[in-house]
Automatic annotation (TrEMBL):
This is AB hydrolase-1 domain-containing protein. GO terms for molecular function: catalytic activity. Pfam families: Abhydrolase_6 (PF12697). InterPro entries: AB_hydrolase_1, AB_hydrolase_fold, Epox_hydrolase-like. The lineage of its organism: Eukaryota, Viridiplantae, Streptophyta, Embryophyta, Tracheophyta. It comes from the Eukaryota. Residues 101-334 form the AB hydrolase-1 domain. SUPFAM superfamilies: alpha/beta-Hydrolases.
Length: 362
């Protein structure tokens, strides 16, 4: 629960490991687009009209700025007769000289999870996309498409095929790491590198819920949505004022207010969820594993286990940080991402320089 609700109202000073990041300002530029492709447009307050009205009660400036950039784009899948209007934050401009970075989110969360780190990555020059996983976030699911693992995978693939079209650096926090592993194994051509944050990849999925009556599942999901439970979880996790905590709860549960949220979440859970334990050793991409040293959700032992099982991975810890470094320590998280990408570019440059061209006389 804390992984979905918490945030940080301050960004600590960061030693400048990279010039681009040291110049970054915590600011999100306004998108040139004033309306989403579905014609929903924006409300008088500047939020997309498909967001729940509760968005207007949010006071967190970073969340407000990112929320105003959320749009819906059509994604055609094989399991839906009509395109799914899928929510995301698109980069202000696309570039061809570096791989795009695609930011997923954790279980029952949304792209707003990236409200602090997204602008840092974007202003450091990355082509950054924040994408809502099918069944969560702010997509239009009025037709109630299936939201099981296979459907989530195909939806992400079709999104990539329609809009990104180049190998991407796929970032998966918490359960999003399982989404990223499952996707990279099935569509390796779409991924260049992987970044895992507080990776939840050793769970076997909610097997008990697959045998439960649906009304029991809906009751459990209703509790998951409840304001008191989310408020209590956030209050226990962080020593902040009640007003701050309430705002974080509003951000974390905003997507739960859409009319199809219960159906989509129950559909995912009763179908068994993610189980990628056997897929981990099959991952062939270079990986960064990022872990908060005070993570109370996922044991640090699992971080070391993941590091050992992935063929090509580096492990980096964020000090004095819990489960969600990209929310709790956004500057540190952005620094590690940029260093990982810069290291890979440097290695490729060294390899290219070490190859001596062979000249032959005709």
């Amino acid at each position: 629960m804390p992984m979905l609700l918490t945030s940080s109202s301050s960004l600590r000073a960061l030693p400048p490991p990279l010039a681009a990041l040291s110049r970054a300002r915590v600011r999100v530029a306004a998108s040139a687009a004033t309306s989403a492709p579905d014609g929903a447009g924006a409300t008088a307050s500047g939020f997309p009209s498909f967001l729940p009205r509760a968005a207007e009660r949010i006071r967190d400036g970073a969340a407000i700025r990112l929320a105003k950039r959320i749009e819906r784009v059509p994604v055609q899948t094989g399991f839906s007769g009509s395109p799914i209007l899928s929510s995301c934050v698109r980069p202000l401009k696309q570039q061809q000289d570096a791989d795009p970075i695609v930011l997923l989110h954790g279980f029952d969360s949304s792209c707003l999870e990236w409200r602090y780190t997204y602008p840092l990555l974007e202003e450091a020059g990355l082509e950054a996309w924040a994408v809502d996983i099918l069944g969560w976030g702010f997509s239009d699911l009025a037709t109630r498409p299936p939201c099981d693992v296979a459907s989530k995978r195909e939806h992400l693939y079709q999104f990539w095929k329609s809009y990104i079209k180049r190998p991407m650096v796929l970032v998966g926090p918490s359960l999003g790491a399982a989404v990223a592993i499952d996707f990279s194994i099935n569509h390796p051509e779409a991924v260049s590198k992987l970044i895992f944050i507080g990776a939840s990849v050793y769970s076997e999925g909610p097997k008990d819920m697959t045998r439960m009556p649906k009304f029991v599942s809906y009751a459990g999901v209703f509790i998951l949505k409840s304001l008191p439970l989310r408020f209590l979880a956030t209050r226990l996790a962080f020593n902040k004022t009640p007003n701050e905590v309430f705002d974080w709860v509003q951000i974390g549960r905003l997507h739960c207010l859409l009319p199809w949220w219960e159906d989509a979440t129950v559909d995912f859970m009763i179908r068994g969820g993610y189980n990628v334990i056997k897929q981990i050793k099959q991952v062939k991409h270079k990986c960064l594993i990022m872990w908060g040293e005070d993570d109370g959700i996922i044991s640090s032992k699992l971080a070391y286990r993941l590091h050992q099982e992935l063929p090509d991975a580096i492990l980096r810890q964020v000090r004095q940080c819990g489960h969600i470094p990209h929310v709790e320590k956004p500057r540190e998280a952005a620094k590690l991402v940029l260093e990982f990408l810069e290291r890979d570019r440097a290695e490729k440059a060294d390899q290219a320089a070490s190859v001596t061209p062979v000249l032959t006389n005709g």
